Amino acid sequence: MENKEFEIGGEKVTGFKIDLPSAPLLVMVAPKGYVMCGYLDLVTAEKLGQAAAVVRGVKSFEDVLKAKVAGATSGAKALGVREGMSGRGALERMV
């Protein structure tokens, strides 16, 4: 497992990466929500009341920041997260 800290919008964002056989599991956690790879489930995040966005086809933290948001929970949408924006843009709204 790897974790790395980033500064986005003047706040700390922590990235977590777990290397799995086919592709890594990635999540980047900001103070108000998180951006996750497709391994994790938006339906569950919605049920738990989380502000979460999903990006797909990512293999690194940099990929997460550059990738387009493919979906978001209502909590993330309330913060201004929209499909098609970058992962970085989503995290900027979650700090």
Explain this structure.
The protein is α+β, with helices and mostly antiparallel strands. The protein has one domain: Hypothetical protein YunC (Hypothetical protein Ta1206 fold), CATH 3.30.1980.10. The chain has 4 helices and 6 strands, in the order ββββαβαβαα. The protein has a 6-stranded mixed sheet with strand order 1-2-3-4-5-6. It starts with a strand and ends with a helix. The mean pLDDT is 97.
Structural class: alpha+beta
Overall number of domains: 1
End-to-end gap = 24 Å
Number of helices: 4
**CATH A-level architecture:** 2-Layer Sandwich
Strand fraction equals 25-35%
The name CATH uses for the topology is Hypothetical protein Ta1206 fold
* Cα shape: globular
Low-confidence stretches: none
Number of strands: 6
List keywords for this structure.
alpha+beta, globular, 6-stranded mixed sheet, Hypothetical protein Ta1206 fold, 4 helices, 95 residues, 6 strands
Reconstruct the topology from this structure.
Layout: E1 2-8, E2 11-18, E3 25-30, E4 33-36, H1 42-47, E5 52-55, H2 61-66, E6 69-72, H3 74-78, H4 87-94
Parallel strand pairs: 4-5
Antiparallel strand pairs: 1-2, 2-3, 3-4, 5-6
